[in-house]
Specification:
By secondary structure, this protein is mainly α. It has helices spanning 7-23, 34-49, 68-80, 83-86, 89-109, 112-124, 126-132, 138-158, 162-176, 189-197, 210-238, 241-260, 271-280, 288-300, 304-321, 335-342, 346-356, 360-386, 390-402, 414-418, 434-443, 453-456, and strands spanning 56-57, 60-61, 407-409, 424-426, 448-452, 466-470, 475-480, 497-499. α1 crosses α18, α2 packs across α3 (68-80) and α9 runs parallel beside α11. The longest helix has 29 residues, at 210-238. It starts with 6 loop residues before the first helix and ends in a 20-residue tail after the last strand.
């Protein structure tokens, strides 16, 4: 009889697998998209200016997201001294820890083999790589939603385990101040309550104890207060009008307001089912024709574990389906739960397939191994394919052409700020128009402006510009006051933001900014 490895050793091996797969190409990656540029820039600005409670983007308050992920990136920059690596460490850490939680939960709810299969399903899924290998908030959010799932499942399905319940509640609180939807694991209480009322096996009924349940809410609110309380005190004592507007933005408009009436990424209600699950949950989604009937049979047998986990996955997908704004990464927190509820059925499915097609056993094993090898290779191939960020070259040229003079930004992108080599002037991320730049150059003739070519002719003569190159969005040129064509009428003075890196960010060296030694 074949002996299995000790559970701790097998878990360690799977965590190492996650480290290798998600960490592939770590030192080769660069911030390429808007979100990565933004979060890395905010973290570096925190280190430079100490603006920890309220994130800033080129001296303007950044009000879209709470600062927890940026704190994590800033800490990793301080720890490693290499910003381009630090951006991806939170996702790598999440991959390793979520792997351990999925394995242990599968082992406790079913058996050791189920834990192992659940981890392999989770790591094999396309969305795991598309998110955990990126430098974005959701790569860190999954750590807290999964810890919330783990803590609540330990309590509801194999408890009572009040300490783990409180750990899960604390994780959800931190998840909320990482990204507003960090509370998602609490939706497990809905199918759990149904299972308890119907006396389904597989769940733990805990009558009474209202104080203990309410304490979980208090723990979650306490975790949220780690950031909100000092923020509120700071604003109440000496907050500016902009800081008060930030509090309203982050607490209301970016949470309930964005969910009810999104202003970006508007998609139909069926978007996740037709455009996301079918692609981003490969290869797990290919097993649904066999999994769905098997889940139906398990539910007929009143298996509370399946009801709670599968019900939670469906509730998460439905929760985001009701919102008008949808992105493929929104439903990623449900993936560990789906892997867990699918894992017990995989041996049964494989036995059915092997019985009918005996030759498939070796082919399936080989395909599974090749799948992981390809994901590992992808970690090195994608950075090579993407190459250097074009904004880096644009800003280096701009500093050379202008001899380091003040540079006014027009319709700018995060990459222009992140890779800047000289002092910047802008009028807000959404308000830096070419007309305002023209007026600023009239008042400050020693300055220059970085302008996209599609709006250049509104205020400047195209013959008097210096072309720099293009990025993914536009061609960019440098203009001076001498290029003014006089077509733009003077405007009322706009609020100008000034920003300069004390030590410019360079991916090749990825050095620590000056003053970053004492965050």
């Amino acid at each position: 009889m074949r002996r299995s490895l000790p559970s701790w050793l097998e878990c360690l091996g799977l965590m190492l697998l996650a480290l290798v797969l998600i960490g592939a190409g770590l030192g080769w990656r660069q911030a390429q998209n808007v979100e990565e540029e933004r979060y890395l820039g905010v973290a570096l600005e925190m280190l430079q200016h100490g603006s920890w409670l309220i994130p800033h983007r080129a001296a303007e308050i950044y009000g879209d997201k709470p600062p927890i992920f940026m704190w994590a990136v800033a800490f990793c920059v301080w720890l490693t001294g290499k910003a381009s690596i630090a951006l991806y460490i939170p996702g790598l850490f999440s991959a390793v820890m979520v792997t351990a939680m999925v394995y242990d939960l599968g082992r406790r709810l079913w058996n050791q083999r189920t834990g192992r299969i659940a981890v392999l399903l989770y790591l094999a899924t396309y969305q795991t790589y598309s998110i955990l290998q990126s430098g974005q908030i959701d790569s860190f959010l999954i750590l807290f939603t999964s810890l919330g799932l783990y803590g609540l499942a330990r309590h509801l399905l194999s408890g009572p385990a009040w300490r783990w319940f409180y750990v899960g509640c604390a994780a959800m609180g931190v998840g909320v101040i990482t990204k507003g939807v960090g509370f998602l694991p609490v939706l497990m209480l809905i199918p759990y309550a149904y299972a308890v009322l119907r006396k389904w096996p597989g769940v733990v009924a805990m009558p009474g104890g209202a104080r203990k349940w309410l304490l979980g809410l208090a723990v979650m609110l306490g975790a949220i207060a780690v950031w909100l309380l000092p923020l509120g005190l700071s604003i109440a004592l000496h907050g500016s009008a902009d800081e008060m507007a930030y509090a309203r933005e982050i607490l209301l408009r970016q949470t309930a307001g964005r969910y009810a009436e999104a202003w970006h990424h508007r998609e139909p209600s069926w978007y996740f089912f037709t455009h996301v699950i079918a692609l981003y949950w490969l290869p797990l989604v290919l097993m649904l024709p066999w999994l769905v009937p098997a889940w139906r049979r398990q539910l007929k047998k009143r298996d509370g574990r399946v009801l709670v986990l599968l019900g939670w996955v469906l509730l998460v997908v439905l929760f985001f389906s009701f919102s008008s704004g949808k992105r493929e990464l929104y439903i990623y927190p449900a993936l560990p739960g789906l892997a867990l509820v699918a894992a017990p059925l995989i041996p049964w499915m494989l036995k059915r397939w092997y019985r009918r097609r005996a030759r498939l056993r070796r082919a399936f094993t080989a395909l599974f191994a090749i799948w992981f090898v390809l994901w590992f290779a992808r970690g090195f191939f994608v950075p090579l394919k993407d190459g250097a960020n074009p904004d880096q070259a644009i800003m280096e040229q701009a500093a050379t052409v202008t001899h380091g003079a003040d540079l006014v930004l027009v319709n700018w992108e995060e990459g222009h700020w992140l890779f800047a080599r000289q002092p910047l002037v802008h009028f807000g991320m959404d308000n830096s128009s070419v007309e305002k730049a023209a007026q600023w150059l009239r008042e400050h003739p020693q300055a220059y402006a970085l302008v996209p070519d599609d709006v250049l002719g509104q205020c400047f003569n195209a013959e008097a510009v210096h072309a720099l190159g293009e990025d993914s969005r536009a061609h960019w040129s440098i203009v001076s006051a001498a290029a003014d064509n006089g077509k733009c009428l003077p405007e009322m003075a706009a609020k100008a933001y000034r920003f300069a890196w004390k030590e410019p960010y360079t991916p090749a060296t990825a050095v620590l900014p000056t003053q970053a030694a004492n965050p």
